[in-house]
Amino acid sequence: MFTNNQIDINSIPKLEDISLNPISKKYLNILYLNILLLYSSFIGIIVIINVLVKKDWAKDYFWHALFFLLISFLFQCVITYLGFNKRAYALRTQDVIHTKGLLVHQRTTVPFIRIQHLETKQSFVAKKLKLASLYVYTAGEAGGDLSIKGLPIDEANRINEFLNNKINERL
Amino acid sequence: MSDFNFIEPSRQSTRGIAVLFGVNAYKFIKKLFILILTFSYAIIKKGEVFGLSLTKMLLIVFTIIVLIVLRSILQYLNFKFHIVGEDFMLSKGILNKEKITVSKSKIQNIYIKQNILQQIINVVQLDIETAGDANAEVNITALSRAKALALKEELLSHINQTEKNINKSAIDENNIYYKASVKKLLLEGFSQNHGRSFLLIAGFFGGLYSSYNDLLGELKIGDKIDDFMIENQDSIGFLILLFFGIFIFTLLFSVIFSLINTFLLNYNLQVIEHKKTIEIQKGLLNKVAIHLSPSRIQNIVISNNRLKRYFGLNTLVIKQAMVDKRLLKHFSIVGLGKEQVTYLTKKLIKKFKVISKKEKPEKYYIRILIYKSFLSIIFFNTISYFVLENYFLLINIILLPVISILIHWRYKKAYYSINDEILLVGSGSVSTITQLLEIHKIQAVATKQSIFQKIRKITTVKVFTASKETTILYIKEDKANTIINFLLFQIESGRKDWM
Predict the structure, then answer these.
(1) Does B442 lie in the same domain as B339?
(2) Could you say which of A109, A142, A146 has the minimum Cβ distance to residue B484?
(3) Which residue has the higher pLDDT, B203 or B378?
(4) Which of the listed residues B158, B174, B196 is the one where a domain comes to its end?
(5) To probe the interface with B, which of A7, A98, A99, A141 has the most B CB atoms within 10 Å?
(6) A108 contacts in B (CB within 8 Å)?
(7) What ipTM was assigned to the predicted interfaces of this complex?
């Protein structure tokens, strides 16, 4: 029989009440490593410039730039550490949720029925730490994809399989 | 069924060589544009490049042309297509042979286009678009119109009989719903927001000036202007006049630019109504025909401004999933009256109705806009400092009221409304923009909140469809959560397809 009852807004499942799962603590090392690599390449560049350009003004700028880079390096490390707890995810019966960001906090939700395909990726370092990143793609060309980085490898595989089953169910 | 046999591999129309030559030459010039400019500059200046005389240079140019012709002929000879059963086969490539097979059932759309060269030699281009790729994969650049139509029919023959009947009857109907008159296009071009083209032109001339400074110096124009400036430098009045003169000139230029642009894109714009779909035809140099089907439409954006409302000119932009990026800019209909907009929107989104209840963003939005405006205030004051020097603060007499009114409008025009089926978001400052989407076409939802907004419990909601991101700015956290929960509930319980 066809029914069309009014929906009680309060009875709709609430996203904000859900408890989120943290990602692996080991992922923090990868984040630090990435920042380190980024800043050492920056510093490398200004050192090379300093060596090649033999002018007085270059020396002055060099120390300013180095100081600035070190400050922002420290700042980014602190932010990354404080923001690490904000990286979390959750699965519900109908959708997958991911949150991240300390200064700008973002929470993305993708319903299972909109998932186009899945991907698990592992970088060289992540392999050593037994971590993996799970990418959930929607048809959105304008964004709306979701990536859970820093999952323990077996957890990533389990979620991948679970989501895959969900995708296949609807076919 | 038709006079054309697609079972045997066939080539394009012989005239295709000319089109291929045009395309190849264009690509060549585009790639080496800077180099060619520099060479011509050197030739004009010294009469030689790398010790090569003009005759030798001409010889080289002639060789390049011959090579391009040769390449075009080889491309033409190696480009063959045919239909085997349910598959469309295409082979191409001179040295790197490429074979493309497209199953008929995977074909999403077939576009027939004509650029200026194709119009001159009277051939059409056929683009085959398949599911899964944003770019059209198969382009046949030169076919006679009759052959192109026959091929299109042949390729779309998989569409089952009932649908075909609908298409047939639709073609019989051929009901032209709307045709943009020249007057409308003139008004449309005239009433556009010239701010953007103004900046574009200013930037263009600025860039041109800096990169061809040498050339200008050579032609002694710069010196003359400099002399003139030095002579008259004392009078501030003159400087303001000059500034004003440049402003008026650039504005005039942008109006003309907008007019030409509008005409090129929208010349002979027609909206043809079929039973289920809508077809747009338009273009002067590049003629395009686009089919819009409700199931593939993701977002609709309606925009106008005060002047346009006065003339009754609304622009309807349709965002469709999986469209060749080069065609994107053609997915719009300009110069529509208010009723026509409502009619077409209803045709494309059946559930569309105007929701009277509008929700506003928090006042926090105004604060953010004020912070953001500091940047432009600093920017314009800096420019002013270079032009007016000690009197630079004078610019704020104009600048501050303008910015205040823009902020006022931006806040006033921002709203959102939501019902069971659709989401409406309003925005804009000079122009009024209404974004519209069906809830079941949403791909993902997100909230975004900065640390400062967290203290005030304010957040921004983002809604993603397959072709566009729509944002509901700065609303209370609990409201945002209710919206997100409601949207997810609608998507997940409805289980409707997004395409």
Answers:
(1) yes
(2) A109
(3) B378
(4) B158
(5) A141
(6) 444-446
(7) 0.87
Does some domain include residue B273?
no
B461 in any annotated domain? yes
Are B226 and B196 contained in the same domain? yes
Distance CA B156, CA B163 (A): 11
- pLDDT digits over A138-161, tens only? 887 767 789 999 999 999 999 999
Phi-psi region of A14 (alpha: psi -120 to 50; beta: other; left: phi over 0): beta
**Which of A4, A12, A147 is best to mutate for the B interface (most B CBs within 10 A)?**
A12
pLDDT digits 0-9 by tens, B91-135: 888 887 777 777 777 777 777 888 888 888 888 888 887 765 544
Boundary of a domain, candidates B218, B247, B266? B266
Instruction: Find the domain containing B371 and state its range.
Output: 364-411
* pLDDT value at residue A134: 92
Nearest residue in A to B464, CA atom: A144
> B477 to chain A nearest CA, in Å?
10
Burial class of residue B175, CB neighbours in 10 A (0-12, 13-18, 19+): exposed
Per-residue pLDDT of B413-461, as tens digits, reads 999 999 888 999 999 888 899 999 999 999 999 999 999 999 999 999 9
Low-confidence ranges of chain A (pLDDT < 70): 1-5, 142, 171
**Token pair for residue B226?**
């400099």
Per-residue confidence (pLDDT) for residue A69, from 0 to 100: 92
Q: Which residues of B227-245 are buried (b: 16+ CB within 10 A; e: fewer)?
A: eeeeeeeeeeeebeeeeee
Contact assignment for A9 to B482 by CB distance below 8 Å: yes
Interval B197-212 mean pLDDT: 65
A131-to-A44, A97, A121, A146, A159 alpha-carbon distances in Å = 29, 19, 9, 17, 13
Domain count, chain B: 4
Which of A108, A111, A139 shows the shortest C-beta gap to B491? Answer: A111
Residue in chain A closest to B325 (alpha carbons) equals A141
C-alpha to C-alpha distance for B186 and B397, rounded to whole angstroms: 34
**B498 chain-A contacts, CB cut-off 8 A:** 114, 139
Q: Give A169 to chain B, closest Cα distance, Å.
A: 13
What span, in angstroms and rounded, lies between the C-alpha atoms of B482 and B284?
48
For residue A94, the chain B residues in CB contact (below 8 A) are 488, 492
Residue B417: beta bridge partners?
A: B424
pLDDT over 50 (residue B165):
no
Q: Who contacts B69 (Cβ-Cβ below 8 Å, separation ≥6)?
A: B17, B21
Residue B197 and residue B337 in one domain: no
Q: What is the pLDDT of residues B1-49, one digit of tens each?
A: 456 777 778 888 888 888 888 888 888 888 887 777 777 777 777 666 6
pLDDT for residue A123: 87
pLDDT of amino acid B300:
92
**Nearest by CB to B444, which of A13, A14, A109?**
A109
What letter represents residue B14's amino acid?
Answer: T
The pLDDT, as a whole number, for residue B424 is: 92
Residues of A in contact with B469 (CB under 8 A): 140, 142-144
Q: Which of B488, B490, B493 to mutate to test the interface with A (most CBs of A within 10 A)?
A: B488
The amino acid present at B51, given as its one-letter code, is: G
Residue B217 pLDDT exceeds 80: no
Closest partner CB to A111 (pick from B462, B468, B492) = B492
- Same domain, yes or no: B420 and B341: yes
* Residues forming a β-bridge with B318: B300
- Give the single-character DSSP code of A39: H
* 3 state SS of B4: coil
Cβ pair B485:A143 closer than 8 A: no
